Amino acid sequence: MLSNLTPQEPDKILALMGEFKADTRQGKIDLGVGVYKDASGHTPVMRAVRQAEQRILETQTTKSYTALPGEQEYRDAMARLILGEGLEGARTASLATVGGTGALRQGFELARMANPGMRVFHSDPTWPNHVSILKFMGVEAVPYRYFDAATRGVDFAGMKADLAQAKKGDIVLLHGCCHNPTGANLTLEEWAEVAQVLETTGAVPMIDIAYQGFGDGLQEDAAGTRLIASRLPEVLIAASCSKNFGIYRERSGVLLALSEGGKTRDLTQGAMAFLNRQTYSFPPDHGARIVSTVLNDDALRADWMTELEEVRQGMLALREQLAAELRSLSGSDRFDFVARHRGMFSRLGATPEQVKRIKDDFAIYLVGDSRLNIAGLNQTTVPILARAIVDAGI
Fold this sequence. Notes:
Blueprint: H1 12-22, E1 29-30, H2 47-59, H3 72-83, E2 92-98, H4 99-114, E3 119-124, H5 128-137, E4 140-145, E5 147-148, E6 153-154, H6 156-163, E7 171-175, H7 188-201, E8 204-209, H8 218-221, H9 223-231, E9 235-240, E10 252-258, H10 263-279, H11 286-295, H12 298-330, H13 337-340, E11 345-347, H14 352-362, E12 364-365, E13 371-373, H15 381-391
Parallel strand pairs: 1-12, 3-4, 3-7, 7-8, 8-9
Antiparallel strand pairs: 2-10, 5-6, 9-10, 11-13
Helix pairs in contact: 2-11, 2-12, 3-11, 4-5, 7-9, 12-15, 14-15
């Protein structure tokens, strides 16, 4: 039987990681993998996370199963973090998941249970795993225009025109903030126009918010999601704790499903718990318990917010430094978009040949579509990257 399996295309980013590890050159720079790193190239354990884990270790008396949809304390804390004062508990069903990817998968499954013929509209480009999951599920994926290669900003007119083609019951997948892979984001005014398009078409928004706190701040990064939640009768939100809590390997995520409330909310909550049961039964709890411990303790939450802001400001400083270096070396402002982008990523708009030249000549690894991870840089490596970009003719 197993001999009938067909080879699967390897994940390009994971393959790039392997290639980087095998490179023996001194001073090589990894800007491919989407993981936050500090100036020393290390992904640290946040102070509040370490304290929360210690508290859990000292007080936890059992490792028995948690609730099927995950602990209510964690789900409520995450819903408040994302939706803020706009959280309406009577409308909101929630599910603890295996990371943000698990939240996306369960969200797609939930939508398909409700509408087996749905299509999913996604930005072009988007995080490759979005499309990979949909393809594996046999769900039609429809790209909508998003990134303007000339300006390295959002092609908003094209985006609106394409989203107008969605129909009632379709899903429109949106990045809540810090767009991956481009770093180009919608303004709040543009979010309002997207909401108007969705109100007209009857399509259901599904927001992937994986980087809250990495862009313009915890509240600012959630503003678009909160606007959509306030305007639309049904909204799906898939969130990850990997980045803003730095607990990548704990695989902690949450799926929120907003409806008109009442019986629909209860029906949705039951369907979500059913999906967990069919997929992996009870969700992992350790990372979720860390998050709820931090968010529900004033001192830990304040320290977490302080450290998260330090991370955010550090990435902004690297963006400003890189844009300034490129302006100096190129004698033009064509790279100023790097400072305008937000989050961990920017897309340079380079050709595959130029990306290869940067890797071959400078030992700097970018994803093939020219996505670079700003958090993989430090003050010393920024000038090296800037010189490589200019010399490669980008």
